[in-house]
Each structure stands twice: as structure tokens, then as C-alpha cells.
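Retro notes, item 3 of 5
We never archived the inputs for the fe (ii) ion complex last cycle. Fixing that now. Sequence and ligand:
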Amino acid sequence: MLIAQLSDPHIALPGERPYGRVDTALSFERAVAAVAALSPPADLVLLSGDLAHHGLAEEYAHMKRLLAPLSQRVLAIPGNHDERESMRAAFLGDGYLPRSGFLNFAVACGPLLVIGLDTLVAGEDKGALSEEGLLWLEAALGAAADRPSLIVMHHPPFLTGIAPMDRIGLEGREGFHQIVRRNPQIEKILCGHVHRPIEARFAGTAAATAPSTAHQLFLDLDPQAPSSRFLLEPGGYQLHLWDEASGLRSHTALLGDYPGPYPFRSAL
Ligand SMILES: [Fe+2]
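Structure as it came back at the time:
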């Protein structure tokens, strides 16, 4: 199984550049083209939140046009920039989202179970898992306890060490931690939100954030850092490769054209 994860594309209206400077649509177009060109092809594409920059219906329509080159199934969860009902309306036809309530889903993908968790709190940058969401998660995991599982959620359940992002992190971590601890079939928790790749151990499994396809967070581990800033490092995406013998391996790929590839053995 090969799963591509595209995170935090922040698609705005056609022609609009978020923050007056980030061409998020161009970055996403490049990420989609890179995934479409993969050989072997990805079996599934995950979008781990902040699909739209303002949560507008027109932005989701723009995103769906940009996704057109992909023939794979696409599964999306919301981030803090998304608007739940606009996103539901845009993706409901794909058949995996509920008609009301949180945008949670559990979808079998070959031998894997992919669980999407909605951590969106309307009007807030932080995320949360409600009691209702945790009960749903426990039931979804319990219904397929022998299946290797991936959880995809926007807000990471661990503290990143980047203070301004941790202030807008996930609430309700303790209950989530207990459920994950009780379900060793969870191979990894795949997140977005931070616009940087970060790896962590969480409740006996692996957890990570993916880079944004667009702008990246400035890496500042100063606990007194007053606010988060972004920079235009290359965007990226992740590829999660799974087989029964080796489990899950995650690769981070950067977008852009670079010299190479060159052979290590050169005639020079
Ligand atoms: Fe984001």
C-alpha cells in the first residue's frame, strides 16, 4: 500500500495569494502533479486539513478542480481554516463523510483501516476532540481491532516544542491518549497544522506532522517565541508505504525542480 499525504494546501479563491504572498494553488498543483506521476502509483491520497484558506465554498470548488489529475480516492479531514459545512458539501459526493455532525470517517483501504478525525473547533485555531468524537473513535477501532490502522487528524496530539503552535494545539489529548494506548493496531497518527515535518512517539505508537504543500513554519524552538511566522521554504508531501512484513515507512518529498538525479559512480 502506498498512501500520499498532502497537508495544509490553504487553497484560496482563484488568483488570490494568502497573506498577499503565497501562491498556494501553484504549490498544490505541483504536489498533485508529483503524486499523479508516481510509479508505482499511490493507492490513496489523504488531505490532512486546511484544505481551504477561508473555508469558502468557492475555495473547495477550486481545490476540486486542482485535484482533477488524480485518479486515486481522496480522503480529507478538516483543519482550523476549514468550514465544516462547506467542506462537507464539497466532498459529500465522494461517499465517505457523514451527512451531519463531525467529519469523521473510517474507510478500509486494502488491508488497512484509515480513520479520519475531525478536530475542528469553529472559529478557533486550536483543535479539540469531544467526548462524542472519542466514543466514535473507540467504536471505529473496536469494530476492526485486527486491522492495521492509520489515524489522520489535523491537530497533532503531541506538543511540538514550537510554543506558538502548541498554544493552538489539541485539547482533549488525555482521553485520546488512553484510547490509542488500548489499540496497538494503530500504526501511526498522521497530522498537519504545523507546516513542518515533526516525528514523535505517542501512546505507544508513532505520530507525525507533515509539511504543507505551500508555506512552511519558521523553525523556532525558543519557548518565549511570541508568534509563529512562516517562510517560503519548498513545500512538500509525504508518502507512507506499508506492507505486512515491514509495517509503515514514511518518506518526505520536497516540491521543486533540482539538479539531478546523478549516479554515485561518476566517470569524472
Ligand atoms: Fe495550515
